[in-house]
């Protein structure tokens, strides 16, 4: 039982991982693009991809050199 508890705790901690956040962000933005048919408003798939890349770049760059210098390091 303790092993299962540890696995669940590790899983929850990994949800904060930058890779997981980037993956979820990609899925959400692409799903929104398809669901709301944003192409008819002039928003191309490439534009959505570029948004995801930019936001992911900020997430990763923040872990290398904080955008917010007052942010505490773990």
Mean pLDDT level: 84
> For the CA atoms, what is the radius of gyration?
17 Å
Q: What is the structural class?
A: mainly alpha
Are there runs of 5+ residues with pLDDT below 50, and where?
none
Task: Describe the main β-sheet briefly.
Answer: none
What's the helix-strand series? HHH
Oligomeric state, counting identical vs distinct chains: single chain
The helix content, as a percent range, equals: 55-70%
The rounded distance between the terminal residues' Cα atoms is 29 Å
The best one-word shape is flat
What portion of the residues fall into strands of 2 or more residues? under 5%
Number of strands: 0
Q: What would the keywords be for this entry?
A:
69% helix; mainly alpha
Concise synopsis of the structure shown:
By secondary structure, the chain is mainly alpha-helical.
Note down, in words, how this protein is organized:
The protein has a domain at 14-64. The chain is 69% helix and 0% strand. The protein is flat. Helix 2 (18-35) runs antiparallel to helix 3. The protein has 74 residues and is mainly α. The protein is built from three helices and no strands. The mean pLDDT is 84.
């Amino acid at each position: 039982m303790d092993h299962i508890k540890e696995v669940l705790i590790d899983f929850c901690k990994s949800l904060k991982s930058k890779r997981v956040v980037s993956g979820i962000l990609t899925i959400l933005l692409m799903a929104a693009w398809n669901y709301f048919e944003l192409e008819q408003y002039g928003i191309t798939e490439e534009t959505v991809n570029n948004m995801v890349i930019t936001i992911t770049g900020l997430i990763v760059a923040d872990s290398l050199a904080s955008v917010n210098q007052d942010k505490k390091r773990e």
